[in-house]
Amino acid sequence: MKVKPLQDRILVKRIEEEEKTKGGIIIPDAAKEKPQEGKVVAVGDGKTLESGKKAPLTVKPGDKILFGKYSGTEIKVDGEEHLILREDDVLAVFED
Q1: From CA 83, how far away is CA 52, in angstroms rounded?
Q2: Considering the entire predicted model, what is its pTM?
Q3: Secondary structure class of 90 (helix, strand, coil)
Q4: Model confidence band, residue 59 (pLDDT cutoffs 50, 70, 90)
Q5: In whole angstroms, what is the distance from residue 96 CA to residue 88 CA?
Q6: How far apart are CA 10 and CA 73, in angstroms?
Q7: Local structure of residue 19 (DSSP, 8 states)
């Protein structure tokens, strides 16, 4: 199934965190928090301004981003969990 976000929304796949710490301690599932990093899968066509023009998004598919802990709406696409959030919820874009 293909999902196309609308307006200034983006579709993100969470990047799973390591199951072990650097010291070798294994973190149980119950103690893990949901990751706040993700990879942009798809983006909408931009936010509609009051003038009627579209403001393009600054993120693009393939970008690695950091987003707020309680941001977005969780959905399942082809059995995998994804998140739909507004571009305003993106805190940072990681640059390589």
Answers
A1: 28
A2: 0.78
A3: strand
A4: very high
A5: 22
A6: 11
A7: S
| Both tokens assigned to 5 | 């976000």
Contact predicate 11/3, CB 8 Å: yes
Contact 73, 6 (CB under 8 A): no
pLDDT given for residue 17 in this prediction: 65
Scan for tokens 């399942």, then name that residue.
76
Cβ atoms within 10 Å of 32's Cβ, excluding its own = 12
Q: What does the CA dihedral 43, 45, 47, 51 come to, rounded to 10 degrees?
A: 170
* CA atoms in the 13 A half-sphere facing the CB of 33: 6
Q: Which domains, ranges and CATH numbers included, belong to the chain?
A: 9-17+27-94 (2.30.33.40)
Rounded (5°) CA angle 67-34-78: 90
